[in-house]
Write a structure and sequence with these properties.
By secondary structure, this protein is α+β, with helices and mostly antiparallel strands. The chain is built from 9 helices and 16 strands. Pfam families: PSP1.
């Protein structure tokens, strides 16, 4: 099917499209309204292939802005009592449409209708909607993938190659099969490719991926009991460092902060920016605060409980709410409010 010519700028609907075979996610535009689950054919990095509409593209206003308390999906319903909420809503006679709707909370998210936006040349357009014949071919290709994996593993063993085959995929738009594998070092697989071409009689592509990509492709359950973030939430593998765990006062036990791939958990990066912003407005750990003519050392800044832990020379520990800690511009020192100090030392 010939691809429709596009102008550089035009009005169209923009959608999130996911390829289930190698878990790629991208934004793509189309002329009409499409709903989640609609099969489409679009240009991927490997060639024309089939994908499914996930939903409308998120708007720019959903991006994180510094100082926003609802960071990365935080919901104002968190920890609330459902019965209390129902009673409160009945008492106030609140209409259903007026009840708070969180952008990312699965419990109160609503389906949004796509809206036309101005599309520039940076956004990919779908090639066309998948036909019944293409869906049949896709299902046929999927059924052949298990056999292809068996054949490829036999050939790998035959050539005694130090590589681990992860998965395979038959491309929809052309006679081509892609094999994804991991290896500790560079592998010379030229003879393997020749053998595979003689078996499948089509183009063969062997693509080496990292251990994080392996988890992203095959999926699974993480320590939280949910699907891997890299498999079900995003296909972008952002860099994660041990500094992110330290900033959030998490255990530095590698078993607790590492995923099944052996690398640091992707979710360590989700609230990192928020922690950095909040801690920037509080005294640094290790600094001193003078209270009632005594110096106390800041031992911890707890973002979740929103209080600062102070330790005295005699081992005494005080907990000060964030609201009672402030920076005195005149003395250029951190202080606590007089009201809090009077309340603590008068009792």
């Amino acid at each position: 099917m010939a691809k429709k010519e596009r102008n550089k700028v035009e009005e169209a609907y923009v959608y999130v499209v996911k390829n289930p075979s190698y878990n790629d996610i991208c934004l793509a535009a189309w002329d009409s309204v499409l709903y989640p689950g609609t099969p489409v054919v679009y240009e991927t990095r490997f060639g024309l292939d089939l994908g499914f509409i996930v939903g409308p593209a998120p708007s720019e206003e959903n991006t994180y802005t510094p100082g926003y308390a609802g960071v990365r999906g935080a919901c104002i319903h968190f920890g609330s009592n459902d019965k209390e909420d129902e009673a409160e809503n009945e008492a106030q006679d609140i209409n259903e449409k007026d009840i708070h709707q969180c952008e990312y909370c699965m419990g109160c998210q609503v389906t949004k209708e796509p809206k036309k936006v101005t599309v520039t040349g940076d956004v990919l357009f779908l090639d066309h909607l998948a036909t019944p014949a293409e869906m049949a071919k896709y299902n046929e290709n999927s059924a052949k993938e298990d056999d292809a994996i068996i054949v490829c593993r036999e050939k790998i063993q035959k050539h005694n190659l130090n590589m681990k085959l992860i998965t395979t995929h038959f491309l929809l738009g052309e006679p081509k099969v892609i094999f994804f594998f991991t290896a500790d070092e560079r592998v010379d697989f030229r003879d393997l490719v020749k053998d595979l071409v003689s078996v499948f009689r089509m183009r063969i592509e062997l693509r080496q991926i990292g251990v994080r990509d392996e988890s992203r492709l095959i999926g699974g359950l993480s320590v939280c009991g949910r699907d891997y973030c890299c498999h079900c939430i995003t296909d972008k593998l952002e860099p994660v460092s041990i500094k992110m765990a330290k900033e959030q006062n998490l255990s530095l036990n590698s078993m607790k902060i590492s995923g099944p791939c052996g690398r640091l958990l992707c979710c360590l990066a989700y609230e990192y920016d928020y922690y950095v912003e909040e801690k920037a407005a509080m005294p640094a750990e290790g600094s001193k605060i003078k209270i009632n003519h005594e110096l106390f050392k800041v031992s911890e800044v707890n973002i979740l409980s929103r209080r600062v832990s102070l330790q005295g020379a005699d081992g005494r520990v005080l907990y000060v709410p964030f609201d009672d800690v402030y920076y005195n511009d005149e003395s250029q020192h951190w202080c606590v409010s007089q009201e809090w100090e009077d309340e603590i030392f008068s009792s």
